[in-house]
């Protein structure tokens, strides 16, 4: 069974747009919206709120790829881009811009469903990686904050590293707060008392 997805098709070429639309309809996708221009794409995506964006640019210009970069930064959606010709710089720029599937000379209606599924899967995989990276960065920042606060407690109370950590941890448990919140409070207080 094909999931109910809202798909935005962006294509100035009516013939090519019809091939995309026909391929998607034959694959069972029914919620299709077609627009002709890539200008104002962010606003169009916000207005139509699609689950997936399919763009056919034939020969992508630097400006079009710059627009894709803006789209992917502001509105995180799986994006499939069809082009007729490409070079390695354009491919790199498209991937950098957040395009999940960059298809060169492959606009055939029979290929629409597997390409769309690949695009969505790849987008989801990258989203999970991005979330894991953000979480790891956040944990690292929290660790640095705790270490900084621990150093303050060690200096002010003359405790060892383990004792300072245990004191901060005990305080967090007693106050029903996160250890990092206690650390932030300690750092703020120390900054005020300088």
UniProtKB/TrEMBL annotation:
Single Gene Ontology MF annotation: RNA binding
GO biological process, one term: phosphorelay signal transduction system
Gene3D superfamilies: 3.40.50.2300, Winged helix-like DNA-binding domain superfamily/Winged helix DNA-binding domain
InterPro entries: ANTAR (IPR005561), CheY-like_superfamily (IPR011006), Sig_transdc_resp-reg_antiterm (IPR008327), Sig_transdc_resp-reg_receiver (IPR001789), WH-like_DNA-bd_sf (IPR036388)
Modified residues (4-aspartylphosphate): 56
Domain (ANTAR) ranges: 126-187
Domain Response regulatory span(s) in chain numbering: 6-120
Assigned keywords, A-Z: Phosphoprotein
Protein name per UniProt: ANTAR domain-containing protein
Organism encoding this protein: Bosea spartocytisi
Upper taxonomic lineage: Bacteria, Pseudomonadati, Pseudomonadota, Alphaproteobacteria, Hyphomicrobiales
């Amino acid at each position: 069974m094909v999931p109910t997805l809202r798909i935005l098709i962006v294509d100035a070429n009516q013939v090519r747009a019809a091939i995309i639309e026909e391929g998607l309809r034959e694959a069972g996708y029914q919620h299709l919206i077609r627009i002709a221009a890539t200008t104002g794409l962010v606003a169009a995506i916000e207005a139509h709120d699609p689950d997936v964006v399919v763009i056919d640019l034939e020969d992508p210009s630097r400006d079009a790829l710059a627009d894709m970069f803006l789209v992917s930064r502001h509105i995180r959606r799986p994006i499939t881009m069809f082009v007729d010709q490409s070079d390695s710089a354009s491919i790199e720029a498209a991937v950098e811009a957040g395009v999940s599937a960059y298809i060169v000379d492959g606009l055939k209606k029979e290929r629409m469903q597997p390409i769309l599924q690949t695009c969505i899967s790849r987008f989801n995989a990258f989203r999970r990686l991005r979330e894991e990276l953000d979480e790891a960065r956040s944990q690292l920042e929290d660790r640095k904050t705790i270490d900084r606060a621990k150093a303050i407690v060690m200096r002010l109370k003359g405790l060892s590293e383990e004792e300072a950590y245990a004191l901060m941890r005990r305080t967090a448990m007693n106050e029903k707060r996160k250890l990092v919140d206690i650390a932030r409070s300690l750092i703020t207080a120390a900054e005020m008392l300088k």
